[in-house]
Amino acid sequence: MPDLLTIQSTVQCPHGGTVLLTTTNMRVAAGGAFALVQSDPSTVVGCPFTVGAKYSPCVLVQWTAGAVRASAVIPILTMSSIGICHSPEGALQGVAIIANTQTEVAAQ
Questions:
Q1: Domain total for the chain?
Q2: pTM
Q3: Which of 2, 46, 67, 92 could form a disulfide with 78 if both were Cys (CB 3.0 to 4.6 A apart)?
Q4: What secondary structure letter does DSSP report for 85?
Q5: Is 78 part of any domain?
Q6: Binned average pLDDT, 10 residues per bin, the chain of 108 residues
Q7: Under the phi-then-psi rule, with left for phi > 0, alpha for psi from -120 to 50, and beta for the rest, what region is 52?
Q8: Do residues 1 and 28 lie in contact, with contact meaning Cβ atoms separated by under 8 Å?
């Protein structure tokens, strides 16, 4: 299985904001932490992005691709997953940067 994103992975928005990773998955773990699933919400904090004079931070990452199925129903996020960052108004602001993942996998 490819490198998995977990709640201990490091992800940032393209402007350097930190993505807070949480999951509803309680079945698949990697490196001692639960793996993220495609439907998990990912909040961004600390994004400094502005458009002209208007502060327009990334606040949400929506995961859209790159998930693998650990079972028939759980799409797990991997290093190749694509997370699209959104502003408070829902504007697309770029692709999330995945800095590290886990390779050890265990199902419960």
A1: 1
A2: 0.86
A3: 2
A4: E
A5: yes
A6: 85 98 90 90 96 96 79 80 96 94 56
A7: left
A8: no
